[in-house]
Structure formats: C-alpha cells, structure tokens
C-alpha cells in the first residue's frame, strides 16, 4: 500500500489542513483578542506546528515514492524563497516566541 493510500494518512492530512486553515482565518482577528485569547491562539499554533512537523517527518522517513516526491516538492518550493524546511519551522517558532514575549509585556 502506498503512503497516500492509507486512510489514516488521508484523514490526518485533511484534518491538519482544515485545522491550519481555521487558525489562519482566526489569526486575522488576533489583534482584537484579549490576553487570554492571544495566549490560547499561540498555544494552538504551537500544537499545529508540532503536528505538522511530525506529519512531515513521516513523509521523510517513508520509502514510498510519492511521499518522497512530496518532500522534494516542498524542498523545491521553499528553496525558491531561499529557506529549508528546518528554517521554515525555526522561523515559525521564532514568530510564536516573539508573540509570547509581546504578550508578556502587555499589562
């Protein structure tokens, strides 16, 4: 069975995408959140990034041709922006850490 033939992989990918889209949409209102809302948003984004990191690691570790092609496509797309997948995750983490620091400075 191929990597993408797995119902579990398909469901997880679908859920990850839907959750990410929901958080992006919610994030457009971030400036209007109260302190607790901002804290919860940051926590949800951290959880999302960790889920995404684990999901991508499964692709990397898979010997399935399509999984490897997906990894290669991601690398190619990110290379167009001059970054690696690790740098992408690092930048996301830095952004969330900056958001936390700003939140701690607020009264």
Write a concise keyword list for the protein shown above.
4 helices; DUF1825; 107 residues; single chain
Topology:
Layout: H1 7-27, H2 35-61, H3 65-79, H4 85-105
Protein name: DUF1825 family protein
Pfam families: DUF1825
InterPro entries: DUF1825 (IPR014954)
Structural notes for this entry:
It comes from Phormidium yuhuli AB48. With 107 residues, this protein is mainly α. It has one domain. The chain has 4 helices and no strands. It has helices at 7-27, 35-61, 65-79, 85-105. The mean pLDDT is 92.
Concise structural overview:
This is DUF1825 family protein. This protein has 107 residues and is mostly helical.
**Low-confidence region ranges:** none
| Chain oligomer state | single chain
What string gives the helices and strands in order?
HHHH
- The number of helical runs is 4
Mean pLDDT: 92
Work out the strand percent: under 5%
Number of domains: 1
Instruction: Give a quick account of the main beta sheet: strands, pairing sense, barrel closure.
Output: none
Please give the number of β-strands. Answer: 0
Structural class by sheet pairing and helices? mainly alpha
What proportion of the residues is helical, as a percent range? over 70%
Which descriptor suits the 3D outline?
elongated
Radius of gyration: 16 Å
How far apart lie the N and C ends? 55 Å
């Amino acid at each position: 069975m191929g990597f993408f033939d797995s119902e579990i992989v398909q469901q997880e990918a679908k859920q990850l995408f839907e959750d990410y889209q929901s958080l992006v949409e919610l994030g457009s209102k971030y400036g209007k959140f109260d302190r607790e809302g901002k804290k919860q948003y940051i926590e949800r984004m951290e959880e999302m990034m960790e889920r995404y990191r684990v999901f991508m690691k499964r692709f990397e570790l898979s010997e399935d041709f399509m999984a490897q092609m997906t990894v290669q496509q991601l690398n190619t797309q990110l290379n167009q922006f001059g970054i690696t997948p690790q740098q992408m995750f690092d930048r996301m983490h830095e952004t969330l850490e900056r958001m936390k620091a700003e939140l701690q400075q607020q009264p």
